[in-house]
């Protein structure tokens, strides 16, 4: 049966709490430590675990922010280094191009003094009028003795092409791979014609009235029958040999000179002087016995 008497649990609880406080006070006084310090110590005891948890959370975030900032700095340094590298590569390419040009000039001057029989004008390749046109410009013109029709060779004496237009300070050169007029050549003692192959850097060789073929690798030079080039200049090499068909040989020539790689060329003064080289008749006066009359005759040396 339920006891309806008063509930004494609350007074007991209050009594226990008061008793605990009294014991804490006695303990504090016994140890000689102030209440503030005790509370501070207790607070630190409670805060330390929370601080450790906070450190575990906050420290990675701080490190992440720091890493992001460092990544930005690294990227900026990389960008600067890339720019410096590009500038260095550009300067290196310019130096290499200049060294190649100097080597070509040395070869040209050695060539002009040792091998070529014709006076030359050394010129720099300065540009191209059209990316789709193999023709190129040189920095020598009529003021340097360069005129239309003169042959052009590279530093090794290989045929490059000929001058088609000459201005006072510049000239336009059409390479043999773009000159539809072609040229007369000699291959293994046989005379033929070489014309450009369309959309190619090769030449098509045709030899008429022959019973002999041409071999792959045969050397091709200009013929003495040529009206555009002096005899004996190197043109190229037979890339694909061929046998005669109906007394005609058709083969392929790869020129020695590559116009796209040229930085300097030599323009040959050939013919030396097509006007003054012609022998002009000389007039002589012959006096007969009659002093009142004389006869003028023209003689050719």
Short description:
The protein has 301 residues and is α+β, with helices and mostly antiparallel strands. Helix content is 34%, strand content 26%.
Description:
The protein is α+β, with helices and mostly antiparallel strands and 301 residues long. It has a domain at 120-268: Thrombin, subunit H (Beta Barrel). Helix content is 34%, strand content 26%. The protein is built from two helices and 14 strands. The strands form three sheets. The protein has a six-stranded antiparallel β-barrel with strand order 1-2-5-4-3-12. It starts with 8 loop residues before the first helix and ends with a strand.
Give descriptors for this structure:
301 residues, alpha+beta, Thrombin, subunit H, six-stranded antiparallel barrel, six-stranded antiparallel β-barrel, disordered C terminus
Q: Taking Cα atoms only, what radius of gyration do you get, to the nearest Å?
A: 49 Å
End-to-end separation in angstroms reads 167 Å
Give the count of helical stretches: 2
- Give, in order, the helices and strands: HHEEEEEEEEEEEEEE
Beta-strand portion reads 25-35%
Helical coverage, percent range: 25-40%
- Please tell me what the overall shape is: rod-shaped
CATH topology annotation of one domain = Thrombin, subunit H
The CATH architecture category of one domain equals Beta Barrel
The overall pLDDT, averaged over residues, is 78
CATH superfamily of one domain: Rod shape-determining protein MreC, domain 1
Unreliable runs, pLDDT <50, ≥5 residues? 274-301
**CATH classification class of one domain:** Mainly Beta
By helix and strand content, what is the structural category? Answer: alpha+beta
Order of strands in the sheet with the most strands? Answer: 1-2-5-4-3-12
Instruction: Tally the beta strands.
Output: 14
Sheet with most strands: 6 strands, antiparallel, barrel
């Amino acid at each position: 049966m339920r006891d309806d008497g008063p509930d004494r649990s609350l007074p007991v609880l209050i009594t226990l709490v008061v008793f605990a406080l009294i014991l804490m006070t006695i303990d504090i006084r016994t140890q000689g430590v102030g209440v503030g310090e005790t509370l501070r110590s207790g607070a630190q005891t409670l805060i330390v675990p929370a601080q450790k948890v906070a450190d575990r959370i906050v420290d990675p975030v701080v490190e992440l922010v720091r890493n992001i900032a460092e990544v930005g700095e690294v990227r900026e340094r990389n960008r600067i280094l890339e720019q410096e590298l590009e500038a260095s590569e550009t300067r290196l390419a310019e130096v290499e191009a200049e060294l190649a040009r100097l080597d070509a000039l040395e070869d040209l001057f050695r060539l002009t003094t040792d091998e070529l029989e014709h006076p030359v004008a050394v010129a720099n390749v300065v540009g191209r009028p059209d990316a789709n046109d193999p023709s190129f410009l040189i920095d020598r013109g009529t003021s340097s003795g360069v005129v239309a029709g003169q042959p052009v060779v590279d530093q090794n004496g290989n045929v490059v092409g000929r001058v088609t237009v000459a201005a006072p300070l510049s000239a336009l050169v059409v390479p043999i791979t773009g000159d539809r007029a072609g040229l007369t050549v000699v291959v293994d003692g046989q005379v033929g014609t070489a014309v450009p192959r369309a959309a190619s850097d090769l030449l098509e060789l045709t030899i008429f009235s022959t019973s002999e073929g041409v071999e792959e690798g045969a050397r091709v030079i200009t013929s003495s029958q040529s009206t555009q080039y002096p005899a004996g200049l190197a043109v190229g090499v037979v890339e694909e040999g061929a046998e005669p068909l109906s007394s005609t040989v058709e083969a392929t020539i790869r020129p020695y000179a590559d116009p796209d790689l040229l930085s300097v060329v030599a323009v040959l003064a050939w013919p030396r002087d097509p006007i003054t080289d012609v022998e002009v008749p000389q007039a002589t006066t012959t006096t007969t016995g009659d002093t009142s009359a004389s006869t003028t005759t023209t003689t050719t040396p």
